[in-house]
Fold each of these.
Amino acid sequence: MSEIKEIRKRINKPPKHNRLYILAISALLLISVVMGTLIYAKSNADAKLFGIPLADISNRFDNFFGGLFKSKVNGSSDDKTVSASPKYTYLGNNYYKSEDQSVPAIVDGTINNISEDQNGYYVLISYTNGITAQYFELTDVIVKVNDNIRTNDSIGVYDTKFKALFMKNNEVIRYEEIFN
């Protein structure tokens, strides 16, 4: 009879997971929450977590891990320029960043004004598509007043982010509206 009681105890006893299994499941759960938060941060630049803008957290994550997954390919003399629209990433409150801390020209245009204040350099550009762009908080400027620039030419560089305002027909427009 005691053997039957022992067998029933084993059958009714809940399964016990080893510590490695529990640690792995916990790590996967944590990674899922972090990745979900970062994905949400990319789609909603004004969202905050504990008072910290999620865009800042996402940018720090990109800066820390960004170079880990990128490969560098050596160029050759056969390199060709490919025309593509420059990509700015919106960070909120008219702040942007690009892939390499340079500010590329959106389309062909002319440099109208350059000035400097305590926040950095300011550049005013008239693009050929009727857009006027104002770039603020640049740490260095590569262009000069009256320079003609082409799409993707570097205007200047920035440290962590730059501010930009885009206007068409004397109205401020969003970055996405430039390409419509």
Note: The chain has a mean pLDDT of 81.
Amino acid sequence: MKILKRKNLPFMAAAMYVIAFSSCEHNDGEPFIKINFPTSSDVAYILNQGSYGDKIEGSLNVLDYGSSSMFENMFTKVNERSLGSTPQCGVAYGTRIYLGMYESHTIEVIDRSTFRSIKQIKLEDSEEGRSPRGMVASGGHVYITMNEGYLSRLDTVELEVDASLKVGLNPETPAVMGDRIYVPVSAWSADYGTTGSVVTMHPFAVEKEIDVPLNPQQFLTNGNDLFVISWGNYGDEKGVLAKVVSDNRYEVVGNARMGTIRDNTIYLIDNPWGGELKYWKYEISSGERTDMAFPEIDSPSGIGIDPSRDVLLISSFPMDGVYPSYLLPGYVCEYTLDGKFVRKYAIGAGPACIFFNAD
């Protein structure tokens, strides 16, 4: 995924926006509430999914490394409306942020400097997918997997979904390598899938299927190597990280359920149902595995690595007695790449998706 790093100029604009915003008044004479904005170009974005059934709304949060500050619920503060139910995926691409809301059936396009909504794309009546699951951006487009079985292409100039392809039931988090998009087809609503769909960008078409382990959830790539994380059947077949060797061959590296990649290293979390929580990293070129420990984390919900800074983030559900809570506010912990704890940030309910600016 190729996304542009935010420069200092948009943050100057954001600072000017804060001044204007805090000095104006509503039409009824009530003053606006001052909104603080990030002041650094080194930021991470964290989506809280909230809880659809318990009517807890999702949110967009911004972690500013430069000031060691978390800016919570930025979209709602700026736009004075809900982001929507169950934010599921997001990318920062060019001067904008693109977010997919699973239960609200919308895609939100947001200015990356001011966090103002540019456009809300409504998918409720779409016959080619309406429930976003994963996103990746490349070549002037954002590609979104839809739970109904489609990969949709969003034109970042017209801000419209201009094409959709049938890729297989319940596709999850895709990855771009070269001029192809790799889509994991989990088919979790059927009997779990064992394939990934390979989609060419030009033309936008399904080229072929490749074999992957049971219940694939996420493709990972450093531009040269392709990996997939599959969750198995939640029973005797465990979640794994596998390297895709050819169309009909893969090599299992180890057990995992979440992962993030940068250059030659993959950081992984193995959090099996009813099993022992483990952390490890994998060096691609040497095949070396190293166990890691993150005792500050209660119940990991997401992991991400900054593509341009040595920052590793792990989000977590809090504990409510002996069980993780999906309703109480969670948190995100910042680490160095060797696993040294830096600091902990409070955040809302259901932190899951972590993404970054990139070069």
Note: The helical segments are 8-23, 74-79.
Amino acid sequence: MDKLFDLTDRVIVVTGGLGQIGREIVVELHSRGAKVAVVNRRIPDTAAIADRFPVDSDSFALFKADITKKTELQTALAAIMERFGTPYGLVNNAGIDTQPSAPPEVSGPFEQFPESVFRDVVEVNLTGTFLACQVFGSAMAEAGRGSIINVGSIYGLLSPVQDIYAYKKEKTGVPFIKPVAYSASKSGLTNLTHYLGTYWAKRGVRVNLLVPSGVGRPDQDAEFVKNYTDRIPIGRMARADEYNGAVVFLLADASLYMTGTQLAVDGGWAAW
């Protein structure tokens, strides 16, 4: 394997590693020889995920932790270090969003957007990432090496195009407004990445932001998919595995001179 992209025996932590994008990242990293530690709020029975994950491998393990609780992350870090050693990589993939199918009380106008929902989304997407960086990143800095990937969103760089969702009101009589909480929380990751990229640069820990656009799913409303893909120069939504290459690049030696910046993998969304 090309040394530039070699991840053999590197201990890599992936938060939210059982989700749609997360599971693709986990399987890819494991296939490249990494020791993958999945940190998730809920841990399913291994038999239930055996068809998707290398559960019988000695280089894959699940660790239960809520990323919004620092003590749980510290417990997970201790268990990971005992099992695999000090992490080399951290992929902050865990996060929550509001889908077009969400109820009107959490997808209505900004003026009535619930404060409690705003706090919940920011707590997971921004505070949770901050805590994971603090806990795992500190161990990496102490070891003098490593790479952190914060997973942002095009809606963290640019405001949502609300016209994409306008059909919901025409169809159901109930408007869907892409909520402010997701955008605000993901935009916060941009400067968290800049901050940590400079803060840890001389201690050997690189911190970069992966900026994805939307991933297609079989259960998505056809009109939403059409409206969304009309906005993408490539003309389609992403497949869940199409961020793997960027993740491997950011974790590997191929990106050793890259820190404190963002890598957009968005089908060209931000180009116009």
Note: The CA atoms of residues 84 and 171 lie 52 Å apart.
